[in-house]
Specification:
Helices cover 40% and strands 13% of the residues. With 424 residues, the chain is of the alpha/beta class. Belongs to the peptidase M20A family.
């Protein structure tokens, strides 16, 4: 236990345990009422009503986004400290709550929703009881599974002023140092010319030919693609004049350029025209070493069992818009095991599967969520009250993240069975 918060640790954990029943009820209600991105009206209401009842200043529909919210708390000692010109630290926690089509909460966002609340409640309890200085912010972030609700929230200032922002994600394994890749997507539309298929086929230009040409060429590109990259395509409409495909990859410029060349060449070779529309772009998650180290220490103290770091790093996972946040302010995105509390592994309960949907409403999943939330809360409290810790966290962030936060980090090549979040 870090000396700076040892005296407050029991208060943090007790506050989270005390709220366990009400948080579990919220989690189960969100699980039973899955909502897609930007349609999370039920989840938005139940979460904001709860935070308001717990003494947070809540902004619903934050920054013009209907199902986003910001909930803030400032301890009584903070105003006086700020008036004296003292530095006041701020920590944020993200809650996600969107579901997936067909399989509901198969990524466990009902659990992420309450993890952000639980972490904030734990820190708030310590600030209140011991008259400590600090600010808290819970950011409700919709649409992680689609275009990334955190991205417009970053642009609109939701994360401004934070010394760090953290979240945690359910998984079939406990991993702090997972390799979370960036992801980008294009909607690709080919336009041809209709003609009678029997009487005058020579008058037509077949847009489907262009799409199939592009699809096959992208398949051939995969053999030259590094293990850190992925290219995936779907055909959403192959029977009308406009046809679509999308690709997902990491943001290596050479791969991106190759894909765009293929898409354009397919149009040229068939006489079609093509329209490329960028749909989303998630950054990889840079691990802040100090935040990750403290979280690991606290969750190990609570009974979490981790593989060696090198083995954790060898487990590639999915992608998340939390990467964009962690390029903007210091942050971490650990994943935690909802299969068992003692390091049990069952990779058949994988994210985005119906088995994960079922597991996300179990008692084990709830207990694991609160354990992870305690780790976030204790780490966040360190940031607020431990002298020099926030400065060290910032220094690590500035050393690791490219200036401006818009350039993907260089990732080592890895190929293994994934045990991470599985989003995208």
């Amino acid at each position: 236990m870090t000396p700076g918060i040892q005296q407050y640790s029991d208060d943090v954990k007790h506050a989270i345990d005390h709220s366990s029943s009400s948080l579990h009820d919220i989690s189960l209600q969100i699980h039973a009422n899955p909502e897609l991105g930007y349609e999370e009206v039920f989840a938005h209401k139940i979460l904001t009503d709860y935070l308001e009842a717990q003494g947070f200043n809540v902004t619903r529909g934050a920054y013009g986004i209907k199902t986003a919210f910001v909930a803030e708390y400032e301890s009584p000692a903070t105003a006086a400290a700020a008036a004296r010109g003292e530095t006041v630290r701020s920590v944020g926690f993200c809650s996600e709550y969107d579901a997936l089509p067909g399989v509901g909460h198969a990524c466990g966002h009902n659990l992420i929703a309450i993890a952000g609340l639980a972490a904030a409640l734990g820190v708030k309890a310590a600030l209140e009881k011991h008259n400590l200085v600090g600010r808290l912010r819970v950011i409700g972030t919709p649409a992680e599974e689609t275009t990334g609700g955190k991205i417009p929230l970053i642009e609109k200032g939701a994360f401004d002023g934070l010394d760090a922002c953290m979240m945690t994600h359910p998984s079939p394994a406990d991993v702090v140092y997972s390799t979370i890749l960036s992801v980008g997507g294009y909607k690709v539309e080919y336009f041809g010319k209709a003609s009678h298929a029997s009487a005058s086929p020579w008058e037509g230009i077949n847009a489907l030919d262009a799409l199939v040409t592009a699809y096959n060429a992208l398949g051939l590109l995969r053999q030259q693609t590094a293990p850190t990259s992925r290219v995936h395509c779907i055909i959403t409409n192959g029977g009308q004049a406009a046809n679509s495909t999308s690709f997902i990859s990491n943001k290596e410029q050479s791969l991106h350029n190759n894909v765009v060349r293929i898409l354009n060449a397919a149009a040229e070779s068939t006489g079609c025209t093509v329209k490329l529309t960028k749909e989303m772009e998630y950054q990889p998650v840079p691990h802040n070493e100090l935040l990750a180290g403290r979280y690991t220490q606290y969750t190990e103290d609570l009974g979490t069992k981790y593989l060696p770091r090198a083995m954790q790093e060898a487990l590639p996972s999915g992608s998340t818009d939390m990467g964009n946040v962690a390029h903007y302010v210091p942050g971490i995105h650990p994943v935690y095991n909802i299969v068992g509390l003692n390091g049990e592994l069952d990779l058949t309960v994988s994210n985005h599967s119906i088995r994960f949907t079922e597991q996300a409403k179990t008692e084990v999943a709830h207990e694991a969520t609160l354990r992870s939330a305690k780790g976030l809360a204790l780490t966040g409290l360190d940031l607020l009250v431990e002298p020099g810790f926030a400065e060290a966290v910032k220094a690590d962030f500035e050393a690791r993240v490219p200036k401006g936060g818009n350039v993907a980090l260089q990732m080592k090549a890895r190929a293994a069975v994934g045990a991470g979040c599985g989003c995208h």
